[in-house]
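[step 3/7] inverse_fold.run input=structure_tokens len=679
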């Protein structure tokens, strides 16, 4: 009969369906549609509805009602239930019988097929088995039915899959707890989602909360829900490269160039030697003796220098700028990708270029001995370094030499008769530099220490100011100044760089400070951030009325914009107005900011890696200034490393005071580097 109309009496043996559990119970009393029960061998008192109960055995009328399962007439125990449990062979035989004659059976009749239907222990044991994860029978309305063969096979497949999934889930949790390497391809989709969440948290993105199951697994692994400990865990699991930068996670730089973009770059590289639109307007400057000067390991070379003697003996400096726009058209797929990146990134382990390397180190570059497309600027200076005349035109150049800074320094110093051009260019740039300094430009040159990574690991590289570096830097500033002035004269919208005027410390105060990093620190703290806009404005620290960066179009998208505006204006084609250029610069701003963050994080990480490997844990230093006086956090300069670092400073040091800096803590995975400094 239906469960709702069934009558129960005290002492009946029943099965209870309670919160996905199947339990044995004894009826104590009936109260309408609810019954008082004693559940389990603990005889826990509960009240449940009639619909939740199956009658397993009615109490014989001549016996007193028991209040426990263990009391007569039931006399149940864990041992008796185990002994009464049906065997797999008996159950399989019963299934075959019912499959051949598919008639539903009452519980006692079903138990008769495999044992004694009058035995309460066997009834209870069979009922419990029927409610469990078995696949042979269905229990419906107090009756047993054999499942069809197709259902049995489906359920067994599902059970097998569930078992494998559960096993993989346990392996996943065990791997987290034991911090063992895992194969992500063996994980279930849910675990892959967990791994993806962990990578997000490791990169600092905590916008999506961790599910409770993953939270419990992290607790078992003694891993706090913070970015740094999760990075440690992922490194142990083999799912985070030890030197992978969190800020690179899920960025266009990490993704690299798609196969389609690489194929397009290959196509353009093959076209580079063909005649392309606009080539007929290029001036052939391959006869000029052109050199490129850069770091020895630089492969994308986007500027070169030539010196021409005019008929009257006047020196004319040529600054040649690579012309990537010859191959990459605006809004083309490669141009769109370059705009997404906004710049190349130069990291400790190598560059992440704005254009695919087959182009950026190939036909876009000013390569030695190769005819290369360029935008060439010529400049003539007055005796005091002012600009006397200039010109700008698309060109062909053929660099004769590719020099490192060390090579160029040697040529400038020795000035051999057949190679005096570099010494002459250096003299011109010194005139120009003096001209800028006389107009308020700041000279903040000092050695700079950076960490580079090679096959031997993290290496400290100190770049010293040198004649060739000063010469090249001054030539690039000159190009930016002349192009900005040209843009201003032509009312041309360009990405002008400016800096507000600053009130520097009094001369007497600066003179009292040691020359070099200490004095420079006092000046730098007064300077404002550089500004970027579409109209010209003065640049304080460069001592210029207006300025643009224009000499690295392979590496900086803004420089490519400058070049496109100049060429379009020169050729009478439409140019971007201020509003259009401003919108484009705003679009680039996020990518530029992200690139700067990645570059800073990269250098900070490799500094930490380098300090982890040092046997020396203390260095002489100079106090520069306070960063947070209330926390005793100051900025110190380590001359031996050519680095400025934050340190917990003891005592009351002043600018220029000598200190001894000690390494207190370093952990590159936790982004932790702490120093203390004292007399």
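[step 3/7] decode complete -> sequence:
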């Amino acid at each position: 009969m239906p469960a709702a109309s069934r009558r129960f009496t005290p002492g009946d043996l029943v099965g209870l369906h309670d919160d996905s559990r199947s339990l044995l119970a004894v009826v104590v009393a009936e109260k309408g549609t609810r019954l008082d029960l004693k559940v389990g061998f603990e005889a826990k008192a509960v009240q449940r509805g009639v619909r939740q109960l199956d009658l397993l055995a009615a109490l014989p009328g001549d016996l007193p009602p028991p209040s426990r399962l263990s009391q007569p007439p039931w006399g149940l125990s864990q041992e008796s239930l185990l002994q009464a449990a049906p065997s797999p062979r008996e159950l399989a035989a019963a299934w075959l019988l019912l499959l051949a004659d598919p008639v539903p059976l009452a519980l006692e009749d079903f138990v008769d097929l495999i044992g004694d239907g009058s035995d309460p222990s066997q009834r209870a044991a069979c009922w419990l088995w029927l409610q469990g994860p078995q696949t042979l029978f269905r229990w419906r309305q107090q009756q047993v039915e054999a499942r069809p063969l197709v259902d049995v096979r489906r359920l067994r497949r599902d059970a097998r899959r569930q078992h494998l999934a559960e096993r993989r889930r346990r392996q996943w949790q065990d791997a987290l707890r034991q911090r063992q390497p895992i194969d992500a391809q063996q994980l279930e989709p849910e675990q892959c989602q967990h791994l993806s969440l962990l990578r997000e948290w490791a990169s600092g993105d905590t916008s999506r909360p961790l599910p409770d199951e993953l939270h419990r697994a992290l607790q078992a692994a003694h891993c706090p829900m913070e970015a740094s400990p999760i990075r440690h865990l992922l490194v142990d699991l083999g799912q985070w490269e030890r030197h992978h930068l969190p800020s690179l996670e899920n960025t266009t730089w990490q993704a690299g160039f798609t196969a389609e973009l690489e194929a397009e770059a290959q196509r353009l590289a093959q076209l580079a030697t063909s005649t392309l639109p606009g080539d007929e307007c290029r001036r052939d400057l391959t006869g000029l003796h052109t050199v490129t000067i850069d770091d020895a390991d630089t492969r994308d070379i986007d500027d070169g220098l030539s010196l021409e003697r005019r008929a009257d003996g006047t020196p004319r400096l040529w600054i040649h700028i690579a012309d990537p726009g010859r191959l990459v058209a605006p809004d083309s797929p490669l141009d769109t990708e370059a705009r997404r990146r906004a710049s190349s990134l130069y990291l400790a382990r190598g560059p992440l270029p704005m254009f695919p390397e087959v182009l950026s180190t190939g036909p876009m570059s000013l390569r030695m001995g190769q005819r290369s497309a360029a935008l060439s600027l010529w400049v003539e200076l007055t005796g005091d370094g002012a600009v006397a005349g200039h010109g700008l035109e698309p060109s062909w150049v053929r660099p004769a030499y590719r020099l490192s800074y060390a090579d160029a320094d040697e040529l400038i110093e020795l000035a051999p008769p057949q190679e005096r051009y570099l010494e002459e260019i250096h003299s011109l740039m010194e005139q120009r530099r003096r001209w800028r300094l006389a107009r308020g430009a700041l000279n903040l040159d000092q050695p700079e220490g950076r960490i580079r990574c090679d096959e031997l690991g993290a290496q400290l590289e100190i770049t010293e100011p040198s004649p060739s570096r000063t010469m090249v830097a001054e030539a690039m500033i000159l190009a930016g100044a002349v192009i900005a002035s040209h843009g201003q004269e032509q009312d041309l919208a360009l990405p002008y760089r400016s800096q507000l005027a600053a009130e520097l410390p009094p001369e007497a105060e600066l003179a009292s400070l040691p020359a070099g990093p200490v004095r420079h620190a006092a000046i730098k703290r007064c300077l404002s951030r550089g500004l970027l806009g579409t109209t010209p404005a003065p640049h304080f620290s460069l001592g210029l009325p207006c300025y643009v960066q224009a000499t690295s179009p392979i590496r900086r998208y803004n420089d490519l914009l400058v070049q496109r505006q100049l060429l379009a204006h020169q050729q009478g084609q439409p140019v971007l107005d201020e509003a259009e250029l401003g919108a484009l610069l705003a679009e680039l701003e996020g990518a530029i900011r992200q690139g700067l963050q990645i570059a800073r994080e990269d250098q900070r990480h490799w500094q930490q890696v380098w300090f982890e490997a040092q046997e020396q844990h203390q260095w002489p230093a100079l106090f520069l200034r306070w960063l947070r006086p209330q926390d005793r956090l100051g900025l110190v300069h380590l001359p031996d490393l050519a680095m400025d670092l934050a340190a917990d400073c003891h005592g009351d040091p002043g600018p220029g005071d000598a200190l001894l800096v000690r390494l207190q803590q370093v952990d590159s995975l936790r982004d932790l580097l702490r120093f203390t400094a004292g007399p």
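[step 4/7] annotate
Residues 578-612 form the longest helix (35 residues).
DSSP finds 19 helices and 26 strands in the chain.
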